[in-house]
Fold this protein.
Amino acid sequence: SQKIEQNSEALNIQEGKTATLTCNYTNYSPAYLQWYRQDPGRGPVFLLLIRENEKEKRKERLKVTFDTTLKQSLFHITASQPADSATYLCASNSGNTPLVFGKGTRLSVIA
Amino acid sequence: DAGVTQSPTHLIKTRGQHVTLRCSPISGHKSVSWYQQVLGQGPQFIFQYYEKEERGRGNFPDRFSARQFPNYSSELNVNALLLGDSALYLCASSSGLATEQYFGPGTRLTVT
């Protein structure tokens, strides 16, 4: 079955810098990779979805890439702000398969 | 527009008891999924319903069951509660089976 690995448990970054979070999948190439933000005690909030045939997707200060050769997605936040501090979850699914989540990376943006 | 709503927000139960959690999806969404999230882990898939039919089931024991009603709201039932069932239970709705999901605030279940 599919496994999603987010190798960094925590990432600290200076305000204004670009944060880069990594997500690796272990088995088949999923049709979709999705990124969510989760604040403590709250439900995840959808951020971006990228399809297998897309290399890159952008939304405001966010950018996601999908590399099927490396079996990896990178999630970038440019000009990071303290308000971006949260846990970011990567998830994958294909067709009718359920969403499989990684453990998440806790991002702290320091002013 | 109202987002996904869940009730109750918090619940404390004793081992062996039964619990029912409720979820109302975003208006127009026909799919509801349930997830269990323990501290430090990502959400783990329990069930997905679409148009009132079960479309997927995760690796959870038969003590877990769910259903979806004609108005697309959903219930998650857990029987014979164990200490290990303590977690945040999340409901998510979506317009289709493989699209982005919109999560509710969750129900925090504590089993003592």
Observations:
- Chain B has one domain: 5-101.
- Chain B has a mean pLDDT of 95.
